[in-house]
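User: Design a sequence. Structure:
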């Protein structure tokens, strides 16, 4: 009898330990890795229409970019994000940009200012407002910009690449490795993605204060 109690106590102890070890930071869960199934979302676009990935019946996948208005890194990548959409939307991989920042702390990232920014820059892609921040938390986005390359597989969306757009967050002309473009090109060629993950470089996402 004593033996059983000890085993139970050890099991309980290790369960408690495991729950501490695996408990993610409350505000930011671990998020998606390559190979994971991604959740769709329904977020408001700058034209006041709601957008879901399910709306894109003919897409082969998506370049989902968490970004914003005010962050210098996001600004440095705006033209490159636009070029990605121009290059890949017609090939079945449109850009879907999402702004998850808290507009209370950062009024520059408000929905109204998103509209202004998109008009100034002539964005050809949707620019969605993740007002509740649920989508950013689900995906595990930490920075602006933070990219998730998704590929449709029957009714699922499979994460194929996560991280940075390329290897130079400051200067588009000095880029040596285009991580995201390489990954999309590999998918289009029917190959496996060789670099599945890189570190996203950018401003931290501005989470709502509890």
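Assistant: Done.
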């Amino acid at each position: 009898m004593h033996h059983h109690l000890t085993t139970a106590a050890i099991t309980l102890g290790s369960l408690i330990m495991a729950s501490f070890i695996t408990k993610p930071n409350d505000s930011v869960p671990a998020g998606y890795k390559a190979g994971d199934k991604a959740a769709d979302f329904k977020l408001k676009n700058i034209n006041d229409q709601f957008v879901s990935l399910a709306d894109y019946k003919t897409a082969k996948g998506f370049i989902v970019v968490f970004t914003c208005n005010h962050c210098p890194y996001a600004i440095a990548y705006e033209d490159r994000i636009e070029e990605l959409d121009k290059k890949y939307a017609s090939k079945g991989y449109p850009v879907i940009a999402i702004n998850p920042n808290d507009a209370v702390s950062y009024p520059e990232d408000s929905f109204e200012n998103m509209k202004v920014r998109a008009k100034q820059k002539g964005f050809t892609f949707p620019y969605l407002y993740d007002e509740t921040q649920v989508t950013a938390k689900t995906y595990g986005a930490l920075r602006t910009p933070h990219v998730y390359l998704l590929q449709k597989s029957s009714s699922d969306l499979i994460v194929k690449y996560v991280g940075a757009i390329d290897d130079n967050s400051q200067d588009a002309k000095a880029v040596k490795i285009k991580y995201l473009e390489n990954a999309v090109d590999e998918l289009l060629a029917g190959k496996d993605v060789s670099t599945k993950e890189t570190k996203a470089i950018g401003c931290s996402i501005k989470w709502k204060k509890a």
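The radius of gyration is 20 Å. The longest strand covers residues 146-153.
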